[in-house]
# Entry
Amino acid sequence: MKPITSITGRAVAIRRTNIDTDQIIAARHCLRTTRTGFAEHLFAAWRAEPGFPLADPAHAGATILLAGADFGSGSSREHAVWALQDHGFAVVIASRFGDIFADNAVRSGLVAAVLADDEVSSLMDAVEADPALPIAVDLVDLTVRAAGIEAPIRMDADTRQRFLDGLDGIDVTLQHEAAIRAYELTHVPIARAS
Amino acid sequence: MGMTMVEKILARASGSDAVHAGDTVVAKVDMNILIDLMFTQWPDPLKIADAERTAIILDHAVPAPSVVDANAGVLAREFAARFGIERFFDVGRHGICHQVIAENALALPGQVLTCTDSHTCAGGAYNNAARGLGPAEIISILCTGQTWYSVAPTIRYELTGAPPPGISGKDVFLHLAGTWGDATNHTLEFGGPGLASLPMNDRRTIATQGAEVSADFSVFEFDEHCAAYLAEHGAPDSFTPADPDPDAVYAATRTIDLGALVPYVARPGKVSENAVPIPEIEERAVQQCFIGSCANGQLEDLRIAADILDGRQVARGVRLIVTPASQQVYRDAVRLGYVQTLADAGAVVTNSTCGACFGYHMGVLGAGEVCLTSSTRNFRGRMGSPDAEIYMASTATVAGSAVTGRITDPRKVLA
# Structure
C-alpha cells in the first residue's frame, strides 16, 4: 500500500446515519473475484434519486466522504471498502463506524477518520456551502482542517502508523520474518498441506 | 474491579489475570469458521495454524446459484482435503453457519469463536465470545490461531418475568433495538432472573441480532438450559463457563420485563430506533412473507409457523417462503410433519441457505413489493429491489400475517 501522510481534496456529504454496507453495495453486485470494478454499484439505489449529492456534478472528483454516525454497519463485506475506493474516495469521515467496516478499511488503505459529531456537521455545512472547498486530512498531527475548522481525528496509534508507513497486515508480519523463521526452526511444525 | 462475561473470557484467552474495557488483548481463538463467500476471494494459505480449530461451512449460496459460487465450492473442497479439515460442512451437511455452529457445539461457553459473517455474535447465546471480523483478519487467524480485540464497554440487560404466549426472542430484541437504539463499539450482556424463561432458540435470535445494533459481542449467562442444549449436541465437558463478577463495571444496566412485551415490528430501513409495538402498523398489506435466516430459521420457528398454518391457507396474493437454517433443521421438520403442514398451506419450503435474507437467491423482492420477514435485516434493497419495503417481525407474526395478507398480531389468528 502507498504511505498516506495527508490527503487534501474536495468532499461530498451524505447526511444520513446508519449507512449500512447493503446501501454502500448490494450483495448481488459483489459477485467478482477481483477487488476492482465495484464503483458503478456504489450507493446504486441512492444515486438514482434526484438530489443525491454523489450525482451532483459540483461534487465530481471528491476524494473525501462525509457521512452520518454509524457508517458501514451491517454485513462484513470488504467490497464496501473497495467500492468506495474504486469511486475515488480516499477518506471517509464520520463520528462512528461499524467495527468490521473500520477494520476492513484500514487493511485496504481507506482512511476511516472519526471526528466528533458536531465537527462532522460543521464540515458538511461548509462543503454544502462551497463544494470546491478543499479539506485537508492530516495523519501526522491527526487533524482535519477546512474553512477555519480544526478538528482532531480519533485514531489509535497502530492504525495511524500503518497509514504513515503504508503497511498492510502482511507487510507488518514480514517485518518479523527473521524471528518467524527462527521460531519455526525450533518448534514442531504447524499444520501443513500433506 | 470485577469483570463482565466477555472481559473474563478475553482474560482467559489472552492469558491475563484481568481485562477491562479500554484494554487491547491478543487472544487465542478456539474455533475459526470459514464460509463459502471467503472462497470467492481466496488467498490460498500455504500453512495454517490448526486444522482442529478450523471449520468450513458452506452457507450463503448453496447449492451454488452462480459459477462464481460453484468455483468457490471447488476451492473450499480442495482446501479442506489438503489440510485434512474434519469439520467441513459441504452441501448436504450444510446450513447457515451460526445454526451449524450450534448443532455441532462449536461455540462453547467461556471460549472464543471467529468468522467473517457479521451475525457471528449468535454464538453468544452459548456464553461464547463470538463475533464477526473482516475477511483479512479471519485469514490471519487461520494462519496464526490468534486475533486481537480492543475491549469494548459492556451494557448489561437484566431480564425479569417470562414472555407471554405468542411472544418470542425476536420481540425481545425488537423492543431492545426500538427502545435503546445502537450499541456501536459496545458489548451486550444478558442475564437475570428472567433468563430461565427464555429457551435457547430465543436466546440465539437475540444474540444474533446484536449485529443490528452494531454491538461487538452479545453474550448470555450460562445456565442449566444452555448446559442441556450443549450436551444434547455432543459438546465435550472440557469448557469453563464465564459468569460476570458481582462488581463488574458496566457502561449501563437496563431491565427488560419479558412479561410486559407485545409483538413488535421494525419498519423498513433500519432496526435500531425503528421498531414499534404492532398496533402502530398493523393492517399494512404484504406480498411476501419470509421465515428463515440464522436468527429465525430454527426448528422452533418452523414449528411455530406450522402450528399457525395448520388447517389455514396462505392468503391469495401472498407468497410465504420458509428457509430452514440448516439441512438438519430441514430433516427434523420433514420428520415432524412441519414441512407437510406448511406446504399444504401454500408455503414454499426451500433448501437451507442464507438466500433471500441477503437478497441473493430463493425469494428476492421486486420493485414496489412489501415484505414481512423474520430474518435479520430490513435495510433498503437488502432482499432484492431497492424499491421494495421490508418490515421485520417474529416468526409468529410473519406466519399469522401470511394468513391474513396484512401485518397482523399472531395472537388474533390463533384466538
Observations:
- The radius of gyration of chain A is 19 Å.
- Chain A touches chain B at residues 18, 20, 22-23, 26-28, 31-33, 35, 44-45, 48, 69-70, 73-76, 78, 96-100, 103-104, 107, 156, 168-169, 190-194 (CB under 8 Å).
- Chain A has a mean pLDDT of 93.
- The first strand of chain A starts at residue 6 and ends at 9.
